[in-house]
TrEMBL record:
Cellular component annotations (GO), alphabetically ordered: cytoplasm
Top EC class, one word: transferase
Superkingdom of this protein's organism: Bacteria
Task of the protein: Transfers the 4'-phosphopantetheine moiety from coenzyme A to a Ser of acyl-carrier-protein.
InterPro entries: 4-PPantetheinyl_Trfase_dom, 4-PPantetheinyl_Trfase_dom_sf, ACPS, Ppantetheine-prot_Trfase_dom
Alphabetized SUPFAM superfamilies for the sequence: 4'-phosphopantetheinyl transferase (SSF56214)
Protein name, as recorded: Holo-[acyl-carrier-protein] synthase
EC number of the protein: 2.7.8.7
GO MF, any single term: magnesium ion binding
Record organism: Lentilactobacillus senioris DSM 24302 = JCM 17472
Gene Ontology process terms (BP): fatty acid biosynthetic process
Domain 4'-phosphopantetheinyl transferase positions: 4-103
Family named by the database record: Belongs to the P-Pant transferase superfamily. AcpS family.
Amino acid sequence: MIVGIGVDLTEINRIATLIDQHPNFLTKVLTIEELAEYHERQGIHQLEFVAGRFSAKESYTKAYGTGIGSAVSFADICILNNEKGQPEFKYQPFAGNAFISISHTKELVMTEVILEREGR
């Protein structure tokens, strides 16, 4: 049974500005595992990666029903690509299945998260 759906749209340039203005932005938004993936990329691919993770975590907390804050922080959610390049949750606080989709254009990142629990 689906218990939550979250969607987010983020401007990639907004993330670039936040990175420039706040030196700790990357370590606030990305887990250690995600930072390692971020550093494997170059140029625009780094921005797309961090914007995608930021947006996905926003989507997640909307589906979870709390928003980013004291109940769920950026560090509580880790999203890594599997061997096919598909993003998957490595860990997250929901006691059930969590599904994610990340898509981007040159300017925008759009993400959707669905939280599902077995039974009714």
